[in-house]
Design goal:
By secondary structure, the chain is α/β, with parallel strands linked by helices. The chain is built from 15 helices and 14 strands. It starts with 11 loop residues before the first helix and ends with a helix.
Length: 367
Amino acid sequence: MDINKSGAKYSAIVGIGEKIKQKSKETNSEYLLLNRGVNSVCNIDLNSIVSDIDFNTIEMQVYPPSQGRPELRNSINEHYFNKKSKSENILICGGGMSALDLVFQSIKIQQILLPEYYWGSYAQIMAIRGIDSNTYAKLEDLEEHTESIKNSAVIICDPNNPLGNKLPDEKILQHIHHLNDNGTIVIVDCPYRRIFCGDEDDFFQQLVNCENVIIVESFSKSLGLSGQRLGFIHTSHKDLTEELGIRLMYATNGINAFSQILVHSLLSTEKGKQATLDFKTNTVAGIRKNIEFLKNKHLLAEKFYQDSEPVGIFAVINQSEEKLLEHRIGSVSLSYFTRNKKESAQKFARICVSVPHDKFRAYFNQF
């Protein structure tokens, strides 16, 4: 049988996880799994929300609309865009990775530009779709090459994965508007942002009329629902919306109805809003304690936070993946997240700082 090989590779993070499982089994010891990108300070309490959902309705048991349930799209417009966009500009997808793949395959470009330190799956999805990629060190660098990148797309991830650093919104918006106005597609992929804010945040509202801006969002991080695989794409470009809708229909025939009803309840009901607020409050408090602890222990790699703030859910520390593993801490070498600085990045590791503080402190007090 002949196979169309994509050239993509399995995630290094999966391989690291398997290695840790094996070591834990061999030594009969518990490891702190900071190699994963899951909010684990606490779970979101869904019991009261689910108890109010009727599983015997037609809406639950038939194919949902291919672009997503209207109620959910309206809730997203209200929650993320303060009703300044339109529900038809929003398409419901099977999580952030699926949303990115749909965008990558739908736009006609020469290349996609990634941050200097980037989530490895960007490159793997591009490999599957046969898209060339390059990197940029700073947003200012993009403005210096405005003409040469007109047929490119730029990914902006803030707070960044793997660094977990946050740039000022004013700076990000300035560069996004400049790129948009000069014909460069900007893919705004900020799945960690909404952990730290809610309806009061107007960042996305300021992008609703930018035709060259595509917003990709996920509820995996902001609501702790990575298991539900739900996200959305927002674009005001009519032709792109139509094409995405067609591809969504034939790729999925509609996204899981239960996950859509669940997220709609979290965004729109009083019980849901309270559960969301409790989850975010506890998660952010735990993340901040852990980052402050790393600073006090001189473990945070300060060189990566000179012009930005370490926010989370990730942070880079000045210990190697191997050294952390010796202390039963799972991590991912920073070298997996960069193309041009692999050698220097090997002495640093990316860790997830969204775990219970007492447990985090106990393991890192070994240093």
